[in-house]
Structures
1.
Amino acid sequence: MIGIEDQVWLQVADMDRIVPIADEDLDRTTADKTASVHFLRFEVTPEQINALKDGATLYAGIDHPSYPLDRYEVPSAIRDSLVADLVVTEH
């Protein structure tokens, strides 16, 4: 499943998909193999955070041909736990 770390995404309601920044510390994929664990960081916009805090649905998906996951609604308990950790910051 080479490249799967680049095919995962999140989506808040019908807003743009959020693609992760993968494996910032080191490359875990070669031409022949990929690691069993990847570290993903999602940069969520203030608008997406506010929408989630207002109750917007969170979706997840994977576009990799060997492990396709169409738009999947993240269960409310997981969504609520993630949303509780989100803070809007100004840069």
Note: The chain has two helices and six strands.
2.
Amino acid sequence: MSPRTRRHIALLSPLAFALAFGAYADDLPAPMMRSAATATADAAPSTAAFEAAKARMATDMAAPYTGNADLDFVRSLLPQKQAAVDMAQIVVENGADPDLRHRAEAMAAQDQAEIEWLMGWLEKHGQP
């Protein structure tokens, strides 16, 4: 191996290592990344409500795909829209900013209208 090749390997090895193993740094379990701010957030009533809304959405989105793009789109979108309504309600009930609470109400109403339309689409197409 030539000196030039060895030098290139020596210079590129740290980069290759960082690229190969740097991604593992993002995969730390949540408890290892907790802080004092997180502990304060955990004590807030809104935190449990947000976590519950996200968990419901994740569970509801776990439905298997059918291969029908229209049906899969509607079924995938419904849990997202419902989670948005749920989270907006959390802000309405717990938020401090009146402008944001007002906007959350408007967003929830819009998402609820879209949920109703999507549910109607499912019914129209004979889907549960």
Note: Helices lie at 3-21, 36-43, 45-60, 69-94, 98-124.
